[in-house]
Amino acid sequence: PGDQEAGELGLAAVPGRQAAFRQALEAAVHYAKAVGCPRIHVMAGRVPLGTDRAAVAGEMETTFIENLRYTADLLSQEDMIGLLEPINNRITDPRYYLNTPHHAAAILEKVGRPNLKLQLDLFHCQIMDGNLSRNLEMYFPLIGHIQIAQVPGRHEPDSPGELNFPYLFELLESLGYTGYVGCEYAPKGDTLEGLGWLRSYWESRGLQHGGTGKAAK
């Protein structure tokens, strides 16, 4: 994430911070290898304070693409995947550079490396664009990881909000998604009690607690 005390949230698209980005990436790879995690979220970073987003967009894109190509080369040596996550700039972070799946897909196309993927957080995607079914279908070939949280409170999937997660989970299954779904939400209370939504979902799908099937489907 860079120097968070100085207001940074990622370095990959921040002009002038290329050396710090590469040093941080090497550290991230070291940590990822230690814990056996094959995916690394490559954080784009924020538009610098006091600058206009449109005015620096070109320079930030050039920096981002350069750093992502470096990232792809480094991660390919370790059989790892780099992930790009759009973060909404309407609620969560007004200055974050990468805000929509469309923008991330455009960057990935320009970089052109197979070991870079889209980390699609449905919380951010709903806030920026909605149309989740179509977006999941459209961007599915690029998706390397999914994250979830209810909108707008960013709590458990069964908390009051805009998203129908049982429908979205079944859509992911129908699309053939076999990766992890990261629960990036803030529990409203006790973490374990808050996982009741998952037990209910397993039961609705004829699964035991733990995701093992009682019957073939």
From TrEMBL:
- Could you say which EC number(s) this protein's record lists? 5.3.1.22
**Lineage of source species:** Eukaryota, Metazoa, Chordata, Craniata, Vertebrata
* Protein name per Swiss-Prot or TrEMBL: Putative hydroxypyruvate isomerase
In its UniProt entry, the species of origin is given as Mohoua ochrocephala
Reaction catalysis annotation: 3-hydroxypyruvate = 2-hydroxy-3-oxopropanoate
What residues make up the catalytic site?
A: 85, 184
UniProt record, GO biological process:
glyoxylate metabolic process
Function, as annotated, reads: Catalyzes the reversible isomerization between hydroxypyruvate and 2-hydroxy-3-oxopropanoate (also termed tartronate semialdehyde).
Print the keywords alphabetically: Isomerase
Query: InterPro entries from the entry?
Result: HyI-like (IPR026040), Sugar_Epim/Isomerase (IPR050417), Xyl_isomerase-like_sf (IPR036237), Xyl_isomerase-like_TIM-brl (IPR013022)
Q: What protein family does this chain belong to?
A: Belongs to the hyi family.
SUPFAM superfamilies, from UniProt? Answer: Xylose isomerase-like
Give one Pfam family.
AP_endonuc_2
> Domain Xylose isomerase-like TIM barrel, which positions?
10-200
Q: Which domain of life is it from?
A: Eukaryota
Top-level EC class: isomerase
Residues annotated as signal peptide: none
The entry lists its GO molecular-function terms as:
hydroxypyruvate isomerase activity
